[in-house]
Write a structure and sequence with these properties.
- This protein is α/β, with parallel strands linked by helices.
- It is 43% helix and 14% strand.
- The protein contains 15 helices and 13 strands.
- The protein is globular.
Length: 419
């Protein structure tokens, strides 16, 4: 396996060096998050880290979000009112979003009138949809943070079928939303390709701002003492001397959770020195029961959700990390956290995974759980594992820093405001 870094594509010509707003006041950014921000997964992490990164560069940020979730330190979150049954954190597609989006649109207009932002920065298609009329009404630039195809996500989540009568109208609506933003930021170069090739979006309106990581927070596993790691493993019921495979993320079918358990069963049938530490929600109980059916309950530990602040140490408890995500279009930010902590990582060979891990990743054909088991076994037994771990850490530091991405986002804002 080569340890050379893959080449990163050049920046879009839209990106130009930032300069202070002409008014002299700090740049004001109103973010629209059509989700129960903050919960400890996926798009929430991108919203949070982007916010903190641009705030470190002088921006003042306010976030409009659904009810539910929690307010991380250093954030200003303004929530919509919701019905009592809609105030909990929800993952994926839901009919509740129909009225929550209407409430969110009103919240965005009210915040825009009082906060007086220079830029609207909308996350996900629903965020761009409700922000677009406000942007036009108040003549404010709209930035759309695109993290994957809306209809592809619905298919992944089994919310609709490709043959459904709703599919083509939703695909059309997705194209309309893509056309409303002044600039579209993508969480990967693969997502930029999806916009150009599938939705015919002009390349000049697309800027790839790949998912990133804060390498000072996600510190290397070797900076923790062996005593700290072993004590934490024992508290989680992990036997002494076991080789540990970690997963931290959503537990769901489209995340490949069932594939991972079946791969684990194959490994456990061949050797008795491997333990699986599976951290996340919302499918904890269902997949625990499935692990019992497979006869590997004693070889798996399910922790439920892990607070984002505690994620670095929990990842560091592993020897190898895994992400069996099946989606071909969504981002996969957990890989960056694994890299920064310095864990050799096994994943399915999706375009996004290859973009992030490059030649340092171990890949199985998408959906092939037997190949996943083979690659996990090889990663655990690899005598080059320490060298690969340090190379992954260095790749994360060199290519995927949130501080660098924060600068690029501020440059995009400045380019828009100069138009």
């Amino acid at each position: 396996m080569s340890l050379a870094s893959t080449e990163i594509r050049p920046r879009s010509p839209l990106v130009a060096p930032a300069r202070p707003a002409e008014s002299g006041r700090p740049l004001r950014v109103l973010k629209i998050a059509p989700t129960s921000f903050f919960a400890d997964y996926g798009c929430h992490v991108r919203i949070l880290e982007e916010t903190l990164a641009i705030q470190r560069r002088g921006a003042v940020v306010q976030i409009c979000a659904y009810p539910g979730g929690r307010d991380p330190d250093g954030t200003d979150v303004r929530r919509v009112w919701g019905a009592p049954w809609s105030s909990s954190v929800r993952v994926g597609s839901s009919y509740h979003r129909l009225y929550l989006d209407a409430f969110l649109g009103a919240r965005v207009l009210g915040s825009a009138m009082t906060f007086r932002p220079d830029v609207l920065h909308a996350h996900l298609h629903e965020g761009a949809f409700v922000a677009a009329p406000v942007a036009r009404l108040l003549n404010i630039p709209l930035v759309f943070d695109f993290q994957g195809s809306l209809t592809s996500e619905m298919l992944d989540h089994k919310f609709i079928e490709r043959g459904s009568p709703f599919f083509r109208p939703l695909r059309w609506l997705e194209g309309v939303i893509n056309g409303r933003a002044d600039v579209i930021l993508t969480s990967s170069h693969n997502a930029a390709d999806v916009l150009r090739c599938q939705f015919k979006v002009d390349a000049g309106r697309i800027v790839a701002i790949p998912d990133a990581v804060n390498p000072e927070v996600f510190r290397p596993a070797w900076t923790y003492t062996e005593q700290q790691r072993q004590l934490a493993r024992l508290k989680l019921g992990i036997p002494l001397g076991a080789k540990v495979v970690v997963y931290l993320g959503l537990l769901a079918d489209y995340q490949g959770s069932g594939h991972l358990l079946r791969a684990a069963a194959r490994i456990c049938a061949q050797r008795d020195d491997v333990h699986f530490l599976l951290m996340g929600f919302p499918g904890q109980r269902r997949f625990q029961e499935y692990a019992t059916e497979l006869g590997i309950a004693h070889r798996t530990t399910f922790t439920g959700g892990i607070p984002y602040e505690e994620a670095p140490f929990h990842i560091a408890l592993g020897d190898v990390a895994v992400s069996p995500k099946l989606s071909e279009t969504e981002g996969n930010g957990k890989l960056l956290n694994y890299m920064a902590v310095g864990l050799p990582t096994v994943t399915f060979a999706t375009p996004v995974s290859k973009e992030i891990l490059g030649p340092l990743g171990r890949y199985a054909a998408v959906g092939d759980e037997a190949a996943l088991a083979v690659e996990l076994t090889a990663a655990l037994d690899d005598p080059e594992r320490p060298r690969v771990a340090r190379a992954l850490r260095q790749r994360a530091v060199d290519l995927f820093s949130w501080d660098d991405q924060g600068k690029r986002i501020m440059d995009v804002y400045a380019s828009l405001l100069r138009r």
